[in-house]
Amino acid sequence: MFYRPQDGHGLPHNPFNAVVTPRPIGWISTRGRDGVNNLAPYSFFNAVAYEPPQVMFASTSAKPDRIGTKDSVSLIRETGVFCVNIVETAAQDAMNATSAALPAGTDEFEVAGLQSAQCDSIDCARVASAPAALECKLTQIVPLPGAANFAVFGEVTGVHLRDDCIVDGIFDVTRYQPLARMGYRNYASVTEQFELTRPDD
């Protein structure tokens, strides 16, 4: 099968998200100037550089109570900071609860029953129980083709690692089992890993 996206795929559901999988989930926390916290998951998320460490996520739709985007991008524009919380499989229900399109000004930490903690290097909340959290300073917001598509880039200014996930000096993802986004409404849990040595090592 071959299709051109502009012509449609002819399938019951769009296969694009199922092709680009698994995708890590960036659970993005922000805080408005009014002090209200916000939390939302984004599966168009990844690390993009080592030195200095940088990450990105993309927001691809809009809410009627925000101008042309969603809460996360709007609040990052306002404050210039955000935190990426890593989602463990045990937090799948809480993560899903924060994906709801709630009115602007709603604290998703409260909605999902999550405890927040103050970030150290930025004025933002983070998920206290997350296995890892990346405090970020905005570097740029890039408009993408299409309505309400934005890529948000940030430099990591602080890193939180949960102590039980560090084993013999290694951050062991099998200790918390990252939740990954698949296609359609499907998710996957990382329960095992293996090592490959590069030819030039």
TrEMBL record:
Molecular function (Gene Ontology), one example: FMN binding
UniProt superkingdom: Bacteria
The Flavin reductase like domain, residue ranges: 18-173
InterPro entries, alphabetized: Flavin_Rdtase-like_dom, Split_barrel_FMN-bd
Name the record gives this protein: Flavin reductase family protein
Taxonomic source organism: Harenicola maris
Organism lineage: Bacteria, Pseudomonadati, Pseudomonadota, Alphaproteobacteria, Rhodobacterales
